Structure formats: structure tokens, C-alpha cells
Amino acid sequence: MSSRRSRSRQSGGSRISDDQINDLVSKLQQLLAELRHRRSDKASAARVLQETCNYIRSLHKEVDDLSERLSELLETTDVSSAQAAVIRSLLTQ
Amino acid sequence: MENVSQDQAKNNQIRWRSAAEQKTYSSKLVEALRHVRRSSPPDNVSSRGRAVREKADKVLAIAAKGRMRWSRAILKKRLKLRLSNHKKAKDRSKLAAAGNSRRKNLKIEVPKKKRLRPLQRRVRVLGRLVPGCRKLSLPNLLEEVTDYIAALEMQVRAMATLTELLTGANAVAGNVAESSNRLEISRQLEHPPQS
């Protein structure tokens, strides 16, 4: 019984068939199109996966940028407990 | 074996897009960020930004209520990091040497037996972008991806709104009062005068 942990890259040990990939990727394509409000019926599987990766990366970048901006604002704003309460009330309107 | 049923997945999507979820997230984030400032702040911009990012991700992971793998992975990662930092303080060189060399071996190791087809390569890349989903099978990965994307979009909306609010608050504070007055006001807010 050899341990496959360090060598095996596929989970579950089974090879992914082309049909499986195409089927699942078309599902993702639909969901992605819904999320991005765009009709992209003709995109290839590779294209869809690429788009998804790019999209996640761009979301990560936005969060990073917003985090940096927020950290600057928090430094200068000196959010006291009262201000935090005000902000919270504005957010829960 | 699926994490959630199709209906549950749809409900999750709806939830991430709701205004209520965003507001809950925003207020929890504000609370968490306040505590970040209290604890000893690092001195440069990028590490402060990173601290905010980590908090934002943690609050997001908690908002998922353990439903999805990516959220559990985020929380586990933070726990591991904290534990490993504690160990490092005790025995730095030993852990660094062992840990780093082991990690290096795994990273450099490339399977020579076959090259991945471009499609499977992209699937691999996608798996690396979603926390904790590196070795997931494609169906489960897609499930995680769609939920993760919806969550990220909410995170962006919430943080953008928060940024606007704070920017607005800054502007108002600057216009209404001189800096010395502002200091006085905030001091009073923190420690209301006892009458």
C-alpha cells in the first residue's frame, strides 16, 4: 500500500473525462454569465475558466485596495466608539 | 458527495446579494476594525492594509456560517498561523529550517511523468485561488467557486460603502470643526464629562 499523498495531484484518484469537464464548465459558464450579466454562449471551456480566474483575482485586488484605503481612513478618522455607532446606524437604515 | 444541495446553493447566492447580509457584514467589520486599531498597530501602510484585509476575510468567513469549504479554510489558516507564530517564538531556527525545507521540496517537485492538459491546468489554477480548494474535484470546486465569488462581491460592495461613509465623515468633520475642536469633541465622546 503505497502512500500517494505526495505524488498524486488528483483528488479521488479518478481521471476527469472531457465530457465531464465540458458539462461542468458549461454549468459554470451559465452561472458566471448570470453573475456578470453577460451572455457568453460561445465561450470555450478554457476561456470560461480563464475568465473566472481573472475575475476572482480582480475581486481580490479590489479587496486589497479597499483594505489599504480603509486602513488609511481609520488612522486619520480616529474612529471613536460614538462614531462607530453612528456609522453602524447609518448602515442599518 | 456534495456540500450543499442545488436549492441550498441558490439560497446562498440570494443571501450574499441581499442588503441585509451586506449591512450585517459591514457593522461586524466596523466593530472588528475598531479592535484592530486598539491593538499595537504596525507602522507602515501596507501591513496596516493587510491587517484590515485579514479582518475583512475573517468576518466574511464567519458570515458564511461554516457552510462552505472556503470559509472553513480561511478560519483554519488563521488558527494555524497563530499557532505557528507561537511555536516560532519558542524555537525559531528549528521550526524555520524544518518547515521551510519541507515546503521547498514540495514546491520544487514537478511530476515528470505527464504534463497537464491546458484545461486541467486552468482547473488547478482556479482551485488555488479559492481558499482550501486546491485538491477539490471539479464539481465540488465549481460549487465553492460560485459561492466564493458571490461572497467576494458582497465584501467589495460592503467595504466600498464603508470607505465612502468614512470619507464622507472625514470631510464633514473637517468642514464643521477646526482640528483642535475635533480633538476636543472626540475626547469628550470617548470620555464624557461627569456632571
UniProtKB/TrEMBL annotation, chain A:
Protein name (record): BHLH domain-containing protein
GO CC terms: nucleus
BHLH domain sequence ranges: 5-59
Keywords, ordered alphabetically: Growth regulation, Nucleus, Transcription, Transcription regulation
Originating species: Nepenthes gracilis
PANTHER family documented for this protein: TRANSCRIPTION FACTOR PRE, TRANSCRIPTION FACTOR PRE3
Domain of life of the organism encoding this protein: Eukaryota
PROSITE patterns given in the database record: BHLH
Record carries keyword Transcription regulation: yes
From TrEMBL, chain B:
Bilayer-spanning residue ranges: none
Keyword line: Nucleus, Transcription, Transcription regulation
Domain BHLH: from-to ranges: 103-152
Gene Ontology terms, MF aspect: protein dimerization activity; transcription cis-regulatory region binding
Organism domain of life: Eukaryota
Nucleus found in the keyword field: yes
Signal peptide limits: none
Coiled coil: none
CC per GO annotation: nucleus
InterPro entries according to UniProt: bHLH_AtIBH1-like, bHLH_dom, HLH_DNA-bd_sf, IBH1-like, IBH1_N
Protein name as catalogued: BHLH domain-containing protein
